[in-house]
């Protein structure tokens, strides 16, 4: 299933937040949204996920969701959002229980997503026993358990230290390479965008408009740490964003 955004605009009261966003999110691709603070990235993600109705324009779901899909759109948040009293298995199981899936069928799905996120040995652990990176892997496993058409990821690595972020990027690349998933991935971090994004959408400062859509053809599995090709793309992205980011920052200081 692809997602198509057609001329999305949105305002909160008198504040215009998004302006005329038209964008395709093709199945099996990771589309990163980058842009200065407050430019409307999370708002756009909420609009795609149906948590907010856009003031203008529409979000189209094109084609059928994948077989066995329980939720076409599912979120992965920065703060993991795990239930502390449930084990790793219990946290993943929750989303299946919501759909009445129990016993053997649930066990098969949970075993599969824990294996894919390299958590099989930690199925019985509680969140408080896990590092930040592992907690986020649980959140990703939980998202994968509903076999979503699109994972909406809102700065999923930004609560983690830089080494853990690198490790988790490697994990996401391995996960996607084994079985491609579709994601809209919001990040502030341009290094993350060039490692993970097939398509990087650069938004202007508020109201967020599309400045440029940058495609990166290099396969994810070949994108290595400190890759000079990626550095060039990252530099280009920063050149696009620098003035907007400075203006946005000065605007925030004025508030
Ligand atoms: N529910 C709301 N009501 C009113 N204003 C809101 C609401 N949600 C967001 N905003 C405002 O809309 C603008 C865009 O917010 P949003 O969180 O989408 O931006 P962002 O690009 O994700 O920001 P950041 O990069 O800082 O996380 C901001 O000025 C924010 O204060």
From TrEMBL:
SMART domains: AAA. It comes from the Bacteria. It holds the Pfam family ABC_tran. PROSITE patterns: ABC_TRANSPORTER_1, ABC_TRANSPORTER_2. The keyword Protease does not apply. GO terms for molecular function: ATP binding; ATP hydrolysis activity. Residues 3-230 form the ABC transporter domain. CDD domains: ABC_NrtD_SsuB_transporters. The keyword ATP-binding applies. Keywords: ATP-binding, Nucleotide-binding, Transport. PANTHER family: ABC TRANSPORTER ATP-BINDING PROTEIN, TAURINE IMPORT ATP-BINDING PROTEIN-RELATED. Belongs to the ABC transporter superfamily. This is ABC transporter ATP-binding protein.
């Amino acid at each position: 299933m692809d997602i198509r955004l057609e001329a999305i605009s949105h305002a909160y009261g008198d504040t215009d937040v998004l302006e005329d966003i038209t964008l395709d999110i093709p199945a099996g691709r990771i589309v990163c949204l980058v842009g200065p603070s407050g430019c409307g990235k999370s708002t756009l993600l909420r609009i795609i996920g149906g948590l907010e109705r856009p003031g203008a324009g529409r979000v189209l779901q094109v084609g059928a969701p994948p077989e066995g899909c329980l939720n076409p759109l599912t979120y992965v948040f920065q703060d993991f959002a795990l239930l502390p009293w449930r084990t790793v298995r219990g946290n993943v199981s929750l989303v299946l229980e919501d759909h009445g899936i129990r016993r053997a069928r649930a066990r098969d799905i949970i075993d599969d997503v824990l294996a894919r996120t390299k958590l099989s040995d930690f199925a019985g652990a509680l969140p408080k026993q896990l590092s930040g990176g592992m907690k986020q892997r649980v959140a990703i496993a939980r998202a994968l358990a509903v076999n979503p058409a699109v994972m909406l990821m809102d700065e999923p690595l930004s609560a983690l230290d830089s080494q853990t972020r690198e490790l988790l990027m490697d994990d996401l690349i391995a996960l996607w390479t084994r079985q491609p998933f579709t994601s809209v991935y919001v990040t502030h971090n341009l290094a993350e965008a060039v490692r993970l994004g097939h398509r990087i959408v650069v938004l202007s400062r508020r109201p967020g408009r599309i400045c440029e859509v940058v495609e990166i053809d290099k396969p994810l599995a070949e994108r290595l740490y400190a890759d000079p090709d990626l550095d060039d793309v990252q530099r280009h992205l920063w050149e696009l964003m620098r003035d907007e980011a400075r203006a946005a920052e000065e605007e925030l200081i004025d508030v």
